[in-house]
Design brief:
The protein is of the alpha+beta class. About 50% of the residues lie in helices and about 5% in strands. Helix 1 packs antiparallel against helix 6 and helix 4 runs parallel beside helix 6.
């Protein structure tokens, strides 16, 4: 088993944090996305979309998409549960995971893709759309602060993949000057707890 990874991108970090929470070690194969190694034929044979991370299983199967990779490890090592404990809890975690992906992480990543020099010449950029996404991300962080007034973590009383996704989104947002406003006390408290977990260093 191998994990094709990039230390620069947020989605590979989501998998690394997930693995650290599970106490699972997987051999890492670095992929140089700055030099577009992920766009070369050898990597595209593993993931035709050219994105990291990719998990290569022992039978030669390639899994891409970070949430799918996390689902694989949740199934093979259920404890500690990071994607829910029963039908209703799994649905609740999934609901919040999707909300964090679409309402926070997606606009943060679209801000970067459309405004940062890294993607100049790599993809068509629409800076105006990037600014719209930045405002959306800031608005949704304010919304999320209110939602978390009555619980310690995104989906309830336990740390889950929804928290991991929010953490990688918030940290990546700093590149585009998207940050938690100090007046948002609930998110500030949450970030202090989430970022101080040993897994956050993965």
């Amino acid at each position: 088993m191998k994990l094709y990874d990039s230390a620069l991108a947020p989605n590979p970090r989501r998998v690394r944090i997930f693995l650290a929470e599970k106490g699972i070690e997987v051999p890492i194969v670095p992929v140089d996305i700055v030099k577009a190694e992920n766009r070369q034929p050898a990597f595209l044979a593993k993931n035709p979309l050219g994105a990291v991370p990719v998990l290569e299983l022992d039978d030669g199967t390639f899994l891409s998409e970070s949430t799918a990779i996390c689902r694989y490890f949740e199934e093979v090592r259920p404890d500690p549960p990071l994607m829910g404990t029963d039908a209703s809890d799994r649905a609740l975690v999934e609901m919040w995971l999707r909300r964090i992906e679409f309402e926070v992480a997606f606009p943060i990543m679209q801000t970067f893709r459309n405004t940062h020099d890294f993607f100049k010449g790599r993809i068509p950029q629409v800076p105006e759309w990037g600014e719209v996404c930045k405002q959306k991300a800031l608005e949704q962080l304010a919304w999320l602060d209110g939602e978390m007034a009555d619980r310690p973590f995104v989906a309830g009383d336990r740390y889950t993949i929804a928290d991991i996704t929010l953490l990688i989104g918030v940290d990546f947002g700093r590149v585009s000057d998207i940050r938690i406003d100090p007046k948002h006390k609930n998110l500030t408290r949450w970030y202090g707890e989430a970022s101080s977990r040993p897994s956050a260093k993965a």
